[in-house]
Amino acid sequence: MNLRLCTLAGLLAAALLVNSPVLADEGHDHGDAPAATNANGPQRLPDGSVFLPKPAQRQMAIRTAPGAQRSLPRAVELNGLVLMDPNAGGKVQAMVAGRLQAGPRGLPAIGQAVRKGELLAYVQPATSSLERSGQQAQLAELRAARQLAEKRLARLRDLADTVPRREIEALESEVASLGERARAVGTGLEGRDALVASASGVISASHAVAGQVVDARELVFEIVDTQRLRVEALAYDTALAQDVAGAYLTTDGGQRVALTLVGAARSLREQALPIQFRAQGEGLGQLAIGQPVRVVVQTRSEVTGVAVPAAALVKNPSNQTIVWVKTAAERFEPRVVTTAPLDGASVSVTTGLQGGERIVTESASLINQVR
User: Which Pfam families does its entry note (predicted)?
Assistant: First the structure.
């Protein structure tokens, strides 16, 4: 009996030991704590800076450059529109109402190169049946009168010895006049209005279809010289027109097009002052008439700042513009900055940086993603 009680007590004690938590001695851990982070990998530190080891910097292609405070030209971004140079392009309009007819090479297509004076199409004048019959009757009268005058002239020439010379000369002039009038009326009946290219360039717009009826002064073709364009920008500061030192725009393909100031208007348009520039450079082929662009105007006035590449600017979680500064061999700190446009590839940092600090110029977005 005592043996059975002892065995039952032993089994009960073993069960209690299995279900109860086991406490370790002080200084020992059985693995219940979360795994520790890798202290040698890229990580965001509590103060917001980033720890980035040298191997990670090489893998991310981090590049830095020292920033220097200097006087930089103040730049202003304006809304612009690409226009046709009035001295290098033109419009082809119908002088009379009529029906379009193709020229010797057919109707030109959009993008086709043409030369000044080249025949593009014809316009057959539209006349009513009553007008046409009246012109035909007039032409018949002129021809009959000319035939009578020629017969009278032949008789007078046979009597040249008895007829004064002035009568023969007067009749000769009458015969010539009747012939010219008959030819003019005949040309009006059968002639066509020729549409010729007003400038050399390419067809940028075509509103022509064979057999189409057009009105007088209706636009049929538009010709543009793609190497000579104008850009019109709207400035809301009228003093800016007198302070332009240079300007440029960047195409969608990333090419920079230099702009030369042509002049500024002396009257406002929708509370803005139009300023025209002449575009020049290799990127003109990527521009189209009527295309909206962003024009960066550099002024003669200057501002003190640090020039940094545009790729160095990133956004923090608060949507503020920041740059990353290298403060130690493996430590980078964010700096909130204010910027102003400088040129197509760089911006001017006016506040937030000091001269001599090393600024991340490449792969700043990768540092910004470290958490």
Answer: CzcB_C
Task: Using alpha carbons, list the distances in angstroms from residue 334 to 51, 109, 312, 360, 363.
Answer: 12, 56, 11, 10, 14
Q: Residue 2 CB: number of other CB atoms within 10 A? A: 6
Element (H, E) at 111: none
Give the right CATH number for 90-224 from 2.40.50.100, 3.10.20.90, 3.30.43.10, 2.40.30.90. 2.40.50.100
Name every residue whose Cβ is closer than 8 Å to that of residue 222 and which is 6 or more positions away in sequence: 84, 89, 90, 91, 92, 203, 204, 205, 206
Q: SS3 for 138?
A: helix
Over residues 304-354, the pLDDT tens digits come to 888 888 889 999 988 999 999 999 988 999 999 998 877 667 888 888 888
Enumerate the β-bridge partners of residue 182. none
Structure tokens belonging to residue 85: 């140079």
pLDDT of residue 184: 78
Residues 6 or more apart in contact with residue 125 via CB below 8 angstroms: 96, 97, 98, 191, 192, 193
Strand partners, 93: 219
Q: Which residues of 134-152 are buried (b: 16+ CB within 10 A; e: fewer)?
A: eeeeebeebeebbeebeee
Tokens linked to 362: 């490449």
Place of tokens 């197509």: 344
Q: Examine the pLDDT at 24 and tell me if it is beyond 80.
A: no
Please state, in angstroms and as integers, the Cα–Cα distance from residue 26 to each residue in 22, 29, 32, 170, following that order. Answer: 13, 9, 15, 141
CATH architecture of 50-72+303-368: Beta Barrel (2.40)
Rounded Cα distance between 141 and 178, Å, is 10
Residue 61 scores a pLDDT above 80: yes
